[in-house]
Amino acid sequence: MMTGRILRVAIFAVCAFSLLAAQDNPIAIVIHGGAGTILRENMPPEREKEYRAKLEEALNAGYAVLKQGGTSLDAVEAAIHIMEDSPLFNAGKGAVFTSEGTNELDAAIMDGATLNAGAVAGLKRIKSPITLARWVMEKSPHVMMIGDGAEQFAKEQGMEFVDPSYFKTEQRWNQWMRMKEREKQQQSQPAKQDSKPQGFNDAGMDDHKFGTVGCVALDKNGNIAAGTSTGGTSNKKYGRVGDVPIIGGGTYANNKTCGVSCTGTGEYFIRSVVAHDVSALMEYEGMSLKDAANLVVMDKLVKMNGDGGLIALDAKGNIVMPFNTSGMYRGYIDVNGKMEIGIYKE
Ligand code: ASP
């Protein structure tokens, strides 16, 4: 009788404790699928549905990891895998083409608990660049590996390789052909660092079509991770590397402040050290996540002509998704389990 009561009290205490613990440790996840000229009037409803469904699938994949008590790193990787494997986004399958008609992929991941990071650039045969970035972080003494060397490392570690043709999609190929055509027509001026990448036409519409993917997650242990994966910018020159694999440029995470994943014209994001800037404003100026992210995206970048946006979350699970373009594929599941998906400015 007595033991029964003790048992019931003990069970009650354990339940109450777990409930409290669960409340103390919020989980949240935010993703993007690229920013750019994304206008409602140009978007066929079927296409919009596909984007929304894929963003939802990616969010659910990452959130499931967090809900089961998994790490933010695993959640980031899981969400990004879904988008890398989808031809809708400019990452993994569906990556944009370089000026040579090839695909060269960049990715990075960062662990906000340890400040460890892994990055890869210029990959041609790796199905999931985000996983290789993680392997660089966890299985090598380095932070960044590029090109043939990175692929050699991947081979030694037993990573899945694909034929370069795997990344090709009809839509990206046609987009690239149009850019090539325009390039021929315009007597090309030598490109300056502060000029838009080729592909932007006068009306500001771009065939450059962003589509980079990224994810930031907060796990039940209060650890933040951020990851980003991309094919870069369309028609980029041989060997060009964007902001995505530059730690502090397009990707950053620090449990003390926030996790950030960026999308936009990488050259501007590198020169503004965007992702670290948001974190530094929080750390040194005591700014809120919202103020810091808005200052960098809507003021600093805009003044430089840098187009794009970012997703970020802090240790409390506050989420921001500012962008200075007409649209950004994006979504989150917040600390209350509420899901939101957006595409346009709205
Ligand atoms: N930031 C990427 C890069 O410059 C492109 C993008 O986000 O669309 O490589």
How would you portray this structure in words?
The chain contains 9 helices and 12 strands. It is of the alpha+beta class and about 350 residues long. The chain has one domain: Glutamine Phosphoribosylpyrophosphate, subunit 1, domain 1 (4-Layer Sandwich). Strands 4-3-2-6-5-1-11-12 form an 8-stranded mixed sheet. A 4-stranded antiparallel sheet has the order 7-8-9-10. The protein starts with a helix and ends with a strand.
Q: What general form does the structure show? A: globular
Major β-sheet annotation: 8 strands, mixed
CATH superfamily: (Glycosyl)asparaginase
At the fold tier of CATH, the topology name is: Glutamine Phosphoribosylpyrophosphate, subunit 1, domain 1
How do the SSEs run, as a string of H and E? HEHHEEHEHHEEEEHHHEEEE
Set out the fold topology:
Elements: H1 2-24, E1 28-36, H2 45-67, H3 72-84, E2 105-111, E3 116-123, H4 129-139, E4 144-146, H5 147-156, H6 170-185, E5 213-218, E6 224-230, E7 251-253, E8 258-264, H7 266-272, H8 274-285, H9 289-304, E9 308-314, E10 319-320, E11 327-333, E12 339-344
Parallel strand pairs: 3-4
Antiparallel strand pairs: 1-5, 1-11, 2-3, 2-6, 5-6, 7-8, 8-9, 9-10, 11-12
Helix pairs in contact: 2-3, 3-4, 8-9
Features:
alpha+beta, Glutamine Phosphoribosylpyrophosphate, subunit 1, domain 1, binds aspartic acid
Give a quick summary of the entry.
The chain is of the alpha+beta class and 346 residues long. The protein has helices at 2-24, 45-67, 72-84, 129-139, 147-156, 170-185, 266-272, 274-285, 289-304; strands at residues 28-36, 105-111, 116-123, 144-146, 213-218, 224-230, 251-253, 258-264, 308-314, 319-320, 327-333, 339-344.
